[in-house]
Amino acid sequence: MAERLFVDVSQQGTLVAPTAQARAALARRAGRWVLMPSATNILLLSQWEGPENAGVDGSERAMLLGEIAGISLLDLLGLFSQTRRSVRVVVSRGVVERAILLREGEIASVASSDPRDRLGEFLVRIGKLSAQQLQDALNTAQQTGRKLGQHLVASGALSSHELWSAIQQQITEIICDVVSWRGGSYAVFSLPDNFQFPQTPPLQTQALMLEAVRRADEMSLFRQRIPSYDTLIHPTGKMPRECSPDELAALQTVSAGMTVRDLGSRLQRSEFETTKIVYNLLSSGAVSATAMAPTQSGRPAAPVAAAPVAGQVPPSGTAAVFPPSASQPAGPNARLAEVVGVFCMALREIDAECRRRGQGEAYRRGMSGFLTDPQNAYHVLFNGVQLTMEGDVDPALVIANAATHGGSDPMRALFDGMNEMTFFALFQASELLDPKVDEDLARRVRMILSALQHS
Q1: Is residue 66 packed enough to be buried (19+ CB in 10 Å), middle (13-18) or exposed (0-12)?
Q2: Closest C-alpha to 281, from 260, 305, 304
């Protein structure tokens, strides 16, 4: 990117160019300018009087500036992906700045001013290197004039595939974090004709955007039982019926009173990954959680029990949640709510995908026909039921219908009916979506429904 030129605004409201380069740049724009209304972290000027000069010198130049609160980064990336533009998008919040390079609409690379985003720090966090190995590698790379990644591959510390896989993970984490920003500013820069892109293949922007949306949705669910990264966790001594390698490692590491943050540091996992692991362990009853209650001074006081969330289910790819925790009394209605909750999560995923692809209206017409069809074998279960704004159904109404019309086994009636509705939804989506998109959607839905395997 072109060299940054700084200017200062004094307390008296005057514009000061502290360097010769900055003064020369301002001199080329001599004249009268209008101060345009903008967020206080953006200074936007538009020429009012002076020589008209819209010349382009071939270097990067700002094409679009604004505030993230006005247009989300997801919308911005979606626009450039659809129009296959090659641009650099720079987002800033405080002193943190991240740059996303797009090549024909796909993400070619990501850069960040945050030291925690550096490749070496990320490799340590995911357990590919120890802190000492990183320091040794940085010293040697500096001496040989190589980039860190080049040195790691040349020295045999990582294979080329491992390095590329780690870079993909790193880019995904940065993108997923930055699209969640609710404040800050963005600037979109054009690229010169002779711009040299990285040799590595670009990543699919749409796929990364979907992952970012999914992570945001999952984290909002996690936060209902794990209020913050400093939530305290305590092993209960119960071993889950199913346990992933990450969850087993967490159980072997966790001790009473450890925070989620401490566990993440020991497991060398990101906040999202660690929070997901703890959520699954909470759902299986293997750990309990307490939140640190702030005192009036703002300091943590004695821990208080985290509020249980009735009927919550894990997101895609997680273990079954049906064994209730000690703080969640089991009962027929609670079990029914858990089942409906899983199916509703799948329905929301299908509805969201259809809306993202511009097929939301057609999809919902088909679903409405399913719900109101008197020939539907499960029409009594869906009597009076309509799709919500999120694309799922009202659990209370479906459960009431199952209790009234489900005969001697309301659970079976509920399960079969919701299963039929979900797979009809997948069929409806398959008629509207491209095959590759439909395949990815079906995979995500299968992962969500895997939570029902122990029901």
Answers
A1: middle
A2: 260
Q: Amino acid identity of 202? A: P
Q: Can you say how many angstroms the Cα of residue 19 is from the centroid of all Cα atoms in its chain?
A: 40
Do 281 and 244 form a contact (C-beta atoms < 8 A)? no
The token pair at 228 is 């913050």
* 173 within 8 A of 270, measured Cβ to Cβ: yes
Q: Contact, 137 vs 157, CB < 8 A?
A: yes
Q: Which two tokens stand for residue 198?
A: 């990285």
The DSSP letter of residue 432 is H
> Which residues on adjacent β-strands are paired with residue 18?
none
Judged on CB neighbours under 10 Å (0-12, 13-18, 19+), 450 is: middle
Q: Tokens 């925070």 sit at which residue?
A: 259
DSSP per residue, 296-330: TTSSEEEEEEPPP-TT----TTPPP--S--TTS--
Q: Are 280 and 447 in contact (CB under 8 A)?
A: no
Closest of 303, 169, 295 to residue 234, by C-alpha: 303
Q: Single out the residue of 443, 279, 452, 435 nearest to residue 349, CA to CA.
A: 443
**Residue carrying the six token digits 């001594």:** 237
Identify whether the C-beta of residue 294 lies closer than 8 Å to the C-beta of residue 301. yes
Look up residue 315 and give its two tokens: 């997101």
Nearest residue to 284 via CA among 338, 239, 234, 218: 239
| Amino acid 167: pLDDT | 82
Question: Which helix H or strand E contains 344, and what residues bound it?
Answer: helix 332-356
pLDDT, tens digit, for every residue of 154-210? 888 887 667 777 888 888 888 888 888 888 889 898 888 888 887 666 788 888 888
What number of H helices and E strands is found in the chain? 15, 13
pLDDT band per the 50, 70, 90 thresholds, residue 449: confident
Q: Please give, one letter per residue, the 3-state secondary structure of 99-149.
A: EEEEECCEEEEEEECCHHHCHHHHHHHCCCCCHHHHHHHHHHHHHHCCCHH
CB 48 within 8 A of CB 32: yes
